[in-house]
TrEMBL record:
It comes from the Bacteria. This is Beta/gamma crystallin 'Greek key' domain-containing protein. Residues 1-19 form the signal peptide. The keyword Zinc does not apply. Residues 108-186 form the Beta/gamma crystallin 'Greek key' domain. PROSITE patterns: PROKAR_LIPOPROTEIN. Gene3D superfamilies: Crystallins. InterPro entries: Beta/gamma_crystallin, G_crystallin-like. It comes from Plesiomonas shigelloides (Aeromonas shigelloides).
Length: 188
């Protein structure tokens, strides 16, 4: 994941003289809505840049020391070994955090308002008697159920009305698109 972020940052800053970088953790992703009761795991990374002349070099690492070293090496590849413009101490660094699996943690049910796990999403780790409380009533179109889980999707609030039971690995709400108002996790 860090290597992917590094590649994205390098593409984003290539050709720019400004060393400041804004890191958008959801580049190309739709917003994720999570209940406040579920704390998200965040992995801390460091992104460092060096800007000799009009060139910009960027790299990321799990520690600031690692990120500084990597960006210095990257800079020397372009400027030459031992370049005075590629010193690790001159790197400008910032720290950020990444959501585990970009919000698709394996210990939660993810529901989406678009097909093929796209659109706005909600991470669910407990029974949900009324999806309207989270703005998701009658909006579910696809989902991602962790392996080993069994989940029941209900058309009514408080687990009433018609229902559909799905296992881990299932993904599309073909039979019940935009009908679900509550969800119960039967097996983890």
């Amino acid at each position: 994941m860090v290597k992917q972020l590094s590649g994205i940052l390098l593409l984003a800053v290539a050709g720019c003289a400004d060393a400041s970088i804004i890191i958008n953790q959801n580049i190309g992703l739709d917003p994720v809505y999570e209940p406040a009761s579920r704390p998200a795991y965040r992995e801390r990374i460091y992104v460092c840049t060096l800007t000799p002349f009009s060139d910009v070099y960027a790299d990321a690492g799990r520690s600031e020391r690692s990120a500084r070293h990597k960006v210095s090496q990257r800079c020397e590849q372009g400027q030459g070994n031992g370049s005075i413009f590629c010193k690790t101490k001159d790197a400008v660094c910032t720290a950020t955090s990444l959501d585990e699996d970009d919000g698709h943690a394996q210990n939660v049910l993810m529901i989406f308002d678009g097909s093929h796990q796209r659109g706005a999403s909600l991470a669910i780790s407990r029974d949900m008697p009324d999806l309207a409380r989270y703005g998701f009533a009658e909006r579910l179109s696809s989902f991602s159920i962790p392996d080993g889980w069994t989940v029941r999707f209900y058309e009514g609030i408080s687990y009433t009305g018609g229902y559909y039971t799905r296992q881990g690995g299932d993904q599309e709400a073909i039979d019940f698109d935009n009908k679900i108002r509550s969800i119960r996790i039967l097996k983890r």
